[in-house]
């Protein structure tokens, strides 16, 4: 089989598999990406400059800040203060939201 056709067939199969998987997730969605940080001010300044995001709340919280895409296209970024962020094996996680938590846990 010609490599060009194989790639097209693989892409079509992947699309089909993705649509099958999507039907299983129901309303489960990625709500935010959470990053543990040691220096909140530095993390907020860096993230807003790089991403163009802005803080969701008007008040400063040294323990937790959520940054949002002003255009509403990107997933929010949550910054969570952790004293030992640099020592943690996992400094990032995602928050998933659903109205069907039990079903997804069983899945």
How would you sum up this structure, described in words?
The chain has 107 residues and is of the alpha+beta class. The protein has a single domain (26-106), classed as 2,3-Dihydroxybiphenyl 1,2-Dioxygenase, domain 1, CATH 3.10.180.10. The chain is built from three helices and five strands. It has helices at residues 3-25, 40-51, 101-106; strands at 29-37, 54-55, 64-68, 77-81, 92-97. It is globular. The two termini are 37 Å apart.
Give the strand order, joined by hyphens, for the main sheet: 2-3-4-1-5
**Rounded to an integer, what's the Rg over CA atoms?**
19 Å
Sheet-strand content, in percent, reads: 25-35%
Order of helices and strands: HEHEEEEH
CATH homologous superfamily grouping: 2,3-Dihydroxybiphenyl 1,2-Dioxygenase, domain 1
| Level-2 CATH architecture | Roll
* Global structural class: alpha+beta
What do the pLDDT scores average to? Answer: 78
How is the CATH topology named? 2,3-Dihydroxybiphenyl 1,2-Dioxygenase, domain 1
**How far is the N terminus from the C terminus?**
37 Å
Indicate how many domains the architecture comprises. 1
Gross morphology is: globular
The number of distinct helices, counting runs of at least 4 residues, comes to 3
Unreliable residue runs = 1-16
Summed up:
This protein has helices spanning 3-25, 40-51, 101-106; strands spanning 29-37, 54-55, 64-68, 77-81, 92-97. The protein is α+β, with helices and mostly antiparallel strands and 107 residues long. The protein has one domain: 2,3-Dihydroxybiphenyl 1,2-Dioxygenase, domain 1, CATH 3.10.180.10.
């Amino acid at each position: 089989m010609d490599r060009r056709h194989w790639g097209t067939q693989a892409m079509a199969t992947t699309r089909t598999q993705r649509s099958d998987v999507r039907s299983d997730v129901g309303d489960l969605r990625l709500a935010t990406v959470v990053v543990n940080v040691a220096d909140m001010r530095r993390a907020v300044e860096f993230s807003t400059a790089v991403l163009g995001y802005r803080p969701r709340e008007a008040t400063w919280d040294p323990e937790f800040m959520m940054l949002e895409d002003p255009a509403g296209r990107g997933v929010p970024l949550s910054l969570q203060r952790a004293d030992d962020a640099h020592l943690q094996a996992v400094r990032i996680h995602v928050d998933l939201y659903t109205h069907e938590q039990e079903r997804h846990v069983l899945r």
